[in-house]
């Protein structure tokens, strides 16, 4: 699907006015950053970069688009749009990387005309995917070695669900319920049965037998449709001690998990796992750390960013040519929403392998540091002269996320609201 | 785009097991409802029904889908999916209608096999669109006669943004920034310029002149890039008293609107309107009722459902055939998430034109009421034997929403948390 109309009306009216005044062809630099992290979070996670590159590739105005836009802009602007191809450069933080207030997670350099049109779709993608990733990362850390299944598709827009599953996997979830995320992105998919399957049959025993016959003893049986203890007994009676897992979706999950573990152990099903689901978020997951739980399914809280469904990222013009052709930093000066003018570079400073600061500079710096200190550059080349050069696999991004987390100071993993894990230093 | 893979993995494993056991062909009734309204809201708004019908039409498994699903289900299930066509009936509340806890806003009747597959995509669409609509309706009421512009595309997933714009328009917003919502759904689009346009030029005066030359005096000039009072003076000097509007996007909007109104009036621009934007929600809009504001732009709060980004709707099996072929009500019995078995019908009881109750019954009722009392049936036929029969225009749904609101008791429009505006009575 073309992405060019996933754009705010005013990008096109600005383009029209700038084409008329001649300012459209001025070189310009836009930056994507967040002024703050939501809810006192300690770090954010970059996600969606690969989807931005896909959207850029599909950013073409076809005949139907141009017909529609005839009511929005003039002929000169339509002619510009007909030939639109982004010819500039894009730099960005890689997916899975952490970010902090002010981190320039994406930098777009081109003419004003070419770059302004991309604002809406770039922000839509990054605001959504970073919000999900930032929540997912906290959940994955809270879960420790226990696997997380993403199962929130039904609680968010049907296409947003696919991107949410991707972001969750990037940040350490083991699998998703979403089949299109499996097909499109290779995310492992998982799932067995819902209450409807039990209710469909004349007895719980009939339902379990049907499921075991079809999916094998390794399957996960849902045991809380009627009486949990009774269901667990029936399950082990039918499947034997090799039953893969049981799932509990309601009630006091910690207490129920204890009871179910005892019942399973008493029946000799010591290897049968316990999966819990039902309105879990990072706090509920952390609270279950001591319970005999082997895996978590997370739905609503994941796809809604656990209270923060958007990452508050903005796309700001920070530099542009003046009448003489020289580049000038620019920034809004009014109250409430200050921003810093000028193209920026970004580095993660680590000392002895632990991050100590996010360094934002007005020019690239040479990495000459005292021993054990390193300033790792964070901006990678994604698009060069209109050509996409920064693709990487989702698994590479997933590995980066793991590495990035080990580098952050321990306070990064506090679930209590507070300051960002490292300060942002503008140099 | 095909919608069949916008589906949870477990719908297919349930299908496989039910095909094997023979239960897949049992007649079944699923209902979509919310157990509660989020955040003490007084009513919810149905939206997304038309998008569900579109998704149903596109719910086909093509060769690529089937290839992918080879790793998920067996050959018998693949054969079923290859021929999948929904052949059942769907009833639903019409778009724009209010709903309350327990309202069966959609009812799907078919075989278990046909109906269970639709769970995920139906819930994704309705949970998203109803969440946005329910927030939008409160905002539109708070704004009264002043127009609302939806401009939240950048703060939500790029495709979800299109649906959000549709839901906002359905509930009384005047327009959207989202061009694809204009193209696909005919929602009026609007917008003029951002701070980037002012910053692109060497002076605010240059920028305003460029915009006025191109978009005419009726345009809206953004006046808070530098000094607001100075910008308003420049704007009127350049455009004259016929300037369409100015927009303020930061600061104390009530105080700034007062100042700007005085400045405009002092310059003779008495007809120039004032548009305010910047993190508005229904509460901020209500708080600006006494300020000299002529229109609102709403972004983040709209597309995130103003604190409640999902409508908590569930899709539950409520009845199915037993071994004798008789239909039986079914319901989960475990703690925490009770539901009521049996196919349901729904009526809005009004007395003297004002809604007094949501009546949910186990069988259709005859409308023989005492004088001035009426039980209006809420379930309309949407799909009959697999054929879509319930399409209507977005404007018809928009008109219905207006009518529905006038029928609700005044307490429905309270922004304070509390009980639903009318009780739900199960008969």
UniProtKB/TrEMBL annotation, chains A, B:
Pathway: Cofactor biosynthesis; NAD(+) biosynthesis; nicotinate D-ribonucleotide from nicotinate: step 1/1. It is an enzyme of class 6 (ligase). Keywords: Glycosyltransferase, Ligase, Phosphoprotein, Pyridine nucleotide biosynthesis, Transferase. It comes from Sphaerimonospora thailandensis. Residues 5-127 form the Nicotinate phosphoribosyltransferase N-terminal domain. This is Nicotinate phosphoribosyltransferase. Its EC number is 6.3.4.21. The keyword Ligase applies.
């Amino acid at each position: 699907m073309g992405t060019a109309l996933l754009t705010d009306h005013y990008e096109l009216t600005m383009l029209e006015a700038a084409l008329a005044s001649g300012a459209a062809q001025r070189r310009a630099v836009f930056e994507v950053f967040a002024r703050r992290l939501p809810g006192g979070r300690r770090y954010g996670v970059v996600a969606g970069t690969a989807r931005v590159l896909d959207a850029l590739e599909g950013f073409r105005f076809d005949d139907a688009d141009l017909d529609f836009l005839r009511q929005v802009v003039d002929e000169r602007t339509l002619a510009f749009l007909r030939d639109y191809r982004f010819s500039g450069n894009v730099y960005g933080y890689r997916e899975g990387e952490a970010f902090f207030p002010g981190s320039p997670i994406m930098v777009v350099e081109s003419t004003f005309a070419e770059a302004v049109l991309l604002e809406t779709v770039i922000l839509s993608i990054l605001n959504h995917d970073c919000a999900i990733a930032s929540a997912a990362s906290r959940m994955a850390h809270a879960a420790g070695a226990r696997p997380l299944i993403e199962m929130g598709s039904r609680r968010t827009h049907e296409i947003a669900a696919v991107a949410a599953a991707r972001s969750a996997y990037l940040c350490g979830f083991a699998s998703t319920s979403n089949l299109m995320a499996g097909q499109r992105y290779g995310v492992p998919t998982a799932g067995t049965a819902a209450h409807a399957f039990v209710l469909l049959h004349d007895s719980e025993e009939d339902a379990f037998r049907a499921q075991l016959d079809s999916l094998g003893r390794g399957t996960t049986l849902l045991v809380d449709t009627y009486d949990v203890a009774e269901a667990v007994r029936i399950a082990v009676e039918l499947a034997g001690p090799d039953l893969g897992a049981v799932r509990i979706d309601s009630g006091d999950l910690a207490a129920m998990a204890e009871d179910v573990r005892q019942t399973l152990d008493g029946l000799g099903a010591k290897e049968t796992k316990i999966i819990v689901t039902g309105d879990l978020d990072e706090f509920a997951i952390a609270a279950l750390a001591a319970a005999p739980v082997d895996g978590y399914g997370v739905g609503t809280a994941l796809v809604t960013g656990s209270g923060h469904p958007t990452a508050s990222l903005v796309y700001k013009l920070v530099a542009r040519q003046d009448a003489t052709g020289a580049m000038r930093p620019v920034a809004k000066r009014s109250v409430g929403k200050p921003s810093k003018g000028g193209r920026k570079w970004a580095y993660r400073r680590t000392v002895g392998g632990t991050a100590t600061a996010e360094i934002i500079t007005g020019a690239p710096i040479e990495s000459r540091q005292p021993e054990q200190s390193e300033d790792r550059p964070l901006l990678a080349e994604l698009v060069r002269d209109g050509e996409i050069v920064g693709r990487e696999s989702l698994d590479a991004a997933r590995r980066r996320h793991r590495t990035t987390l080990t580098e952050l100071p321990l306070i990064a993993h506090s679930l209590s609201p507070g300051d960002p894990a490292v300060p942002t230093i503008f140099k």
